[in-house]
Amino acid sequence: MPLEIVTVPCLADNYAFLVHSSTTGETALIDAPEAGPILDELSRHDWHLSEIWLTHHHWDHVDACGEIQDATGAKVVGAAADAHRLPPLNTRLRAGQNYRFANEDVVVLDVPGHTVGHIAFHLPQSKAVFTGDSLMALGCGRLMEGSPEQMWGSLSRLAALPTETTVYSGHEYTKTNARFALTIEPDNPDLQSRARQTEAARAAGNPTVPSLLKLELATNPFLRAKLPSVKSALGMEDSSDVDVFAEIRRRKDSF
Ligand code: ZN
Ligand code: FE
């Protein structure tokens, strides 16, 4: 049986995710923004939480970790490099380290940029990646700690995953991201139709997360900084990929 993945809206615009195996009965939570909705979702499915995986140390991803751990007895898993500023970890992960969950591989990816200790969880068999605030739907996280080089490297690693991978990111920012993306590539037809679909989904109260990596590659301006068409739209034909990425990130910061 494939793993079942459920999106749990939390706080104003955060997403947490539950990954459940009906074969082993195990359930993992990705990020812990708010206890109420997550515990409700667990009891609605009658799932017992086994693990909490943390993508990065920001409060809106870890604040409810202790409360959820107390309520469920789940073990907490996060980046070894950030153990000093994450909730107490039962398992410390390093990038490249192979981790197993419910008979599946979990590949830990280092994705610094938004924060320096940020990790992503890739489940190749389930064709899913949990990216937190690194790669987001039509966007990427702000560079709060890392450099453009770091974030460009992180996005490039994520962009190299199989294109049929589903991207589970941490926030519902897609509508604003779409408006911004259209300032970079106003004539991109895939982006135009995604922007329309995003408006419709939000008007109906539906989430726009997760999304397919294939769609991100076709529409997300931060993944497209290396394209000659994007460079020339910015008048940066001769600039490096990372410089073009940095310019797009700068523009988004003041959008
Ligand atoms: Zn964050
Ligand atoms: Fe966040």
Describe what you observe in this structure:
By secondary structure, the chain is an alpha/beta fold. 34% of the residues lie in helices and 24% in strands. It contains 9 helices and 14 strands. The strands form 3 sheets. A 6-stranded mixed beta sheet has the order 1-2-3-4-5-6, with helices on one face. Helix 5 packs antiparallel against helix 6. The mean pLDDT is 98. The site of zinc ion (ZN) has 6 residues, from loops.
Task: Supply database-style keywords.
binds zinc ion; binds fe (iii) ion; six-stranded mixed sheet; 9 helices; 255 residues; single chain; alpha/beta; Metallo-beta-lactamase, Chain A
Compose a concise summary of this entry.
This protein is α/β, with parallel strands linked by helices and 255 residues long. It has helices spanning 35-45, 59-62, 65-72, 148-159, 174-184, 189-203, 213-219, 228-233, 241-253, and strands spanning 4-10, 14-20, 27-30, 51-53, 75-79, 91-93, 98-101, 104-110, 119-123, 128-132, 135-136, 139-140, 166-169, 211-212. It has a single domain (4-253), classed as Metallo-beta-lactamase, Chain A.
